[in-house]
Amino acid sequence: MTYVYPILIFAAMGIVFGVLLVVISKVFAVKTDSRVKEITAALPGANCGACGYAGCADYADAIVNKGAAMSACLPGGGGAATAIGEIMGISVSAAAKQVPVLHCNGTCTVTKQRFHYDGIQTCAGAKRFYGGNGTCAWGCLGYGDCAAACENDVISFVDGVLHFAIEKCVSCNKCVNVCPNNLIEMRPDTKRKVDILCSSQDKGKVAMQTCQNSCIGCMKCKKVCKFDAVHVVNVHAEINYTKCKNCGLCVKECPRGCISLRK
Questions:
Q1: Rounded-to-integer distance, Cα 131 and Cα 31, Å
Q2: In angstroms, rounded to a whole number, what is the distance separating the alpha carbons of residues 242 and 110?
Q3: Per residue in 132-168, pLDDT tens?
């Protein structure tokens, strides 16, 4: 009998605390909207952050509880937007398709290396050593951090410069985020076909010495443009796409071949 009462007391306390925990969990339970799970399931599951949120589940919660845009999932495209709209009971138009652009055309034939880099074979690693081993400190480093980040086999390297298989791209922004020289841009694939394939901000003489395809800030593109769409900022040409009419005059006028008209 000496041990019976303590055992009974502990058993009774266990039952009481168990009941209290159940009651508390019911009273203070955080109610979740079933639409959050439905939207999460409708998203591609890339968790790329291109929508501006931490992942697909976070984006789904933001749509339901914070009024986030329902067409921000670029990898999901029109299919995801339509599915989300059906769940929310609203008609949704998909965001414009995004395409990647590399603002560099420094192939192996037009630019050189300053030294042999024998460290960690990544762009981020090479960047830590004097800004990279290329004569142009602004150009593509060529070690493929972007290709390693891409999960859709979009990126390949030709003559030292990356190329995109645009038809495979899901606009996840992963390549954009890992480029240490910020050379990759995702832009809407609508009326924005003229691109500056150079990011150098070196002055004319230095730029000419580092790469044969570099922008030298000569302003010929600006002078020939009839729509005030081209300006030279920091010795570097920039295009205002809201004004650009894709006439191609700047492409023909550029003496360095660093402006492209994408077909």
A1: 51
A2: 32
A3: 999 999 999 999 999 999 988 999 999 988 899 988 8
